[in-house]
Design goal:
The chain is an all-alpha fold. Helix content is about 75%, strand content about 0%. It has a single domain, classed as Sodium/glucose cotransporter (Up-down Bundle).
Length: about 575
């Protein structure tokens, strides 16, 4: 017996034969699944089956099938109505935040501190559990029958070669942050560990493990969840590259669906705007401090911040005008090559054998402690909660705030790759490179502090933005390497801002893969203004607080994306690449 709702299937004039067959197969598969689960010997079972069809699961399935019957024009019309309003709302909120921060002045720094403390003590369990759940979910997908599904037509080949793909992944996902914290974070954990004896061998091991934990699998699993949802619905279901496309319709009411999807996209846009603004702000603080430290100038003031921000904005707007395949791709490749060259120099100029040992040991320390770290909140030790709020939660909320930006960007450049390729590419390569970077930069700095004559730890902790340059000072050709480091920070800022404006413009332009230049310019100026305002209004704490505020609602959206994606895959026939 067919489900009753099957009688309301779309007419032949609205669907091609292939789509009609898929609808028939999915309807039959759903009924078969119900029959396997239930005892058909009972007389009331058939009535129960009918009731099951009206359940939450059935309504979602019905709405998914509804998309298959729509013409591309109908889909675009619905998305246009969702996106149009969000452009103006997000623009208004961004301007309002700028005015609010300027009005509060120094008081905003106090508010930022209170927000950070609240999240550290009240929501630490939520972020740790959510991030770990995403990692477990992705590992399941890699080894499941869904791993071979192609993000695009079954015979689609990857749009970008592996080198360009990995370079763009890394430049967008980490970029300037790894330069900012490469030496300073391991040194901070070494001298101020959460529970170990400061400056001890155990503290050194834990320092590298924590750095890997903060920048490794958990960070990239957050990105990958968003990327998978957007890529799957964009390349396989004809949807635009909007976060709302990845969230299933949970209601049959058209007005409610529209409201929910509009809200999801608005949350994603705001998370990107303030998450990326905060990261660019960190880069500008480091660039300004580095220029002062290396060249003896005075740019760590309002005029200097404005000048650096203006220069970064001009360059990324020029890059943005050239499009994705030229500007961002070429800059990302150049960034990766310069980063590898700088990494190679520090490796050989320091103690190569020691760095190699630290790399191997760090992988072991990280993997052995990963199960513990993945669920660790230590409610019995308030001191750890405070440390966790300053480090682990700051990072996790940062990755969540960046995830709509990086996720949509990864989705855009991953057409033709399988689900397994995308997940492994996101988790393994950037994760290993991050551990290598921290092993060389952080390991070299810790070795100088532990075994050498240079006591650089206290100087690093006093001014974390100068950590990398303080370490360079202990190596040969410090002026040259510092100058290269400054250049790399600048180009990473440009690619991050370029990628971010590209994604925000996509999200406020109906998911257009080639958004108009004037939209990019508007958002580029908004990002620059927010970044400057937060730096002036409270510095590092203000930047972190802005990320924390807008990351929380998007964390819930990410959970919905994962749930929707798994639900949709459960009724999707496996597509194999020829």
């Amino acid at each position: 017996m067919k489900p009753k709702s099957h009688s309301s299937k779309p007419s032949e004039k609205n669907t091609d034969p292939e789509t009609q067959l898929e609808i028939e197969a999915l309807m039959e598969e759903y009924e078969m699944k119900l029959r396997r689960k239930m005892d058909m010997r009972k007389s009331e079972t058939q009535d129960e089956i009918e009731r099951k069809k009206d359940s939450f699961y059935r309504r979602i399935l019905k709405n998914e099938l509804r998309d298959l019957t729509k013409s591309t024009g109908e889909i675009r019309s619905e998305e246009k109505s969702i996106v149009g309003l969000n452009f103006w709302i997000s623009l208004f909120i961004s301007v309002a935040v700028i005015v609010f921060v300027l009005f509060l002045g120094d008081d905003f720094a106090v508010i930022s501190e209170n927000i950070s403390r609240f999240i550290a003590t009240k929501l630490n369990w939520f972020y740790v559990l959510l991030s770990t759940s995403f990692l477990i979910f992705l590992i399941y997908l890699v080894f499941s029958r869904f791993g071979n599904i192609v993000l695009g037509p079954p015979n689609e080949k990857p749009e970008f070669d592996d080198l360009s793909w990995y370079s763009m992944l890394f430049s967008a996902g980490m970029g300037v942050g790894i330069l900012f914290w490469g030496s300073a974070e391991p040194m901070s954990h070494f001298l101020n560990p959460p529970m170990e004896q400061p400056g001890s061998i155990e503290a050194a091991k834990v320092a590298m493990a924590y750095a890997a934990f903060h920048w490794g699998l958990h960070a990239w699993s957050i990105y990958a969840v968003c990327a998978l949802g957007v890529a799957y619905y964009g390349f396989r279901k004809r949807k635009k590259y909007l976060v709302s496309s990845s969230v299933a319709d949970a209601t049959a009411n058209k007005s409610t669906r529209k409201l929910v999807k509009s809200l999801v996209d608005l949350i994603a846009i705001l998370a990107v705007i303030f998450g990326v603004s905060a990261s660019i702000g960190l880069g500008i603080i480091q660039l300004s401090g580095g220029i002062d430290y290396v060249f003896g100038m005075d740019t760590s003031n309002l005029f200097g911040y404005v000048l650096i921000t203006t220069l970064v904005t001009l360059v990324f707007m020029i890059s943005s005008s050239t499009g994705l395949k030229k500007g961002i791709r070429l800059l990302s490749n150049a960034n990766m090559l310069v980063a590898i060259a700088l990494l190679t120099f520090v490796f050989f100029a320091g103690n190569p054998l020691f760095s190699l040992k630290v790399f191997v040991d760090s992988i072991g320390q990280y993997l052995s402690r990963l199960p513990l770290f993945s669920f660790m909140v230590e409610p019995y030790q308030p001191g750890y909660e405070l440390w966790m709020g300053n480090w682990t939660l700051s990072y996790f909320t940062w990755w969540i705030a960046w995830s709509p930006f990086v996720g949509i960007f990864i989705a855009r450049i991953s057409k033709g790759r399988t689900i397994r390729e995308l997940i492994l590419g996101c988790l393994l390569i950037p994760g290993l490179f991050s551990i290598l970077w921290f092993s060389v930069f952080g390991g070299t700095a810790i070795e100088m502090e532990m075994m050498g004559d240079a006591q650089i730890g206290s100087r690093m902790l006093e001014k974390v933005s100068l950590g990398t340059f303080i370490m360079f000072e202990q190596l040969p050709f410090s002026q040259i390497t510092s100058a290269v480091g400054l250049l790399l920070i600048f180009t990473f800022l440009v690619t991050s801002a370029d990628s971010a404006t590209f994604v925000i413009s996509m999200m406020t332009s109906e998911g257009d893969l080639e958004p108009k230049l004037k939209i990019k310019i508007i958002w580029g100026l908004i990002l620059a203004a927010i970044c400057l305002t937060l730096i002036i209004g409270g510095g590092l704490k203000a930047l972190q607080a802005a990320t924390l505020i807008f990351a929380f609602p998007f964390a819930i959206v990410l959970a919905l994306i994962a749930r929707t994606f798994l639900l949709r895959l459960s009724i999707q026939k496996k597509s194999e690449r020829d």
